[in-house]
Amino acid sequence: MTNSAEVKIFRFDPTVDEEPRYESYEVPYEYWCKVKVIDTLRYVYENFAPGLSFREPCRQQICGACLMLVNKKPVLACGAFSEKEMIIEPIPDHRVLKDLIVDLDEGKGHDEYDTSRDSLKE
């Protein structure tokens, strides 16, 4: 599939895993093109990785709970569009609870990350 996307997702469950790892998934065109990162994660969860953990509480770019790194840039997964090649990771400076879920009481608050559209332009 030439129109499919390669999505690498950080995986780590500290109750089971000794070290973090990345898992790769091939996502069809309709589940990455012109859709939000959160929707691509939902597709991976529903079709490949039912144990994948991530937050998607409001889906309105309000609460900041879905803050993560996409290709090393902080984004709200409910607000950022997916790309053909993505590496999705938890935000740094926070303890990973599982996969993309971090302890939000540690490290920077979500409002300290610049997730504006201008910051995402190259």
- Characterize the largest beta sheet: strand count, sense, and whether it forms a barrel: 5 strands, mixed
Name of the CATH first level: Alpha Beta
Which parts are unreliable, with pLDDT below 50 for 5 consecutive residues or more?
116-122
Q: Which structural category do the helix and sheet elements fall into? A: mainly beta
- What does the average pLDDT come to? 87
Give the distance, in angstroms, between the N- and C-terminal Cα atoms. Answer: 27 Å
SSE order = EEHEEEEE
Strand neighbour order, sheet with most strands: 2-1-5-3-4
Q: What is the annotated CATH architecture? A: Roll
Report the helical percentage: under 10%
Number of DSSP helices? 1
CATH homologous superfamily annotation:
Beta-grasp domain
CATH fold-level assignment: Ubiquitin-like (UB roll)
What's the number of domains? Answer: 1
Proportion of residues in extended strands: 25-35%
Shape annotation: globular
**Cα gyration radius (Å):** 14 Å
Number of DSSP-assigned strands: 7
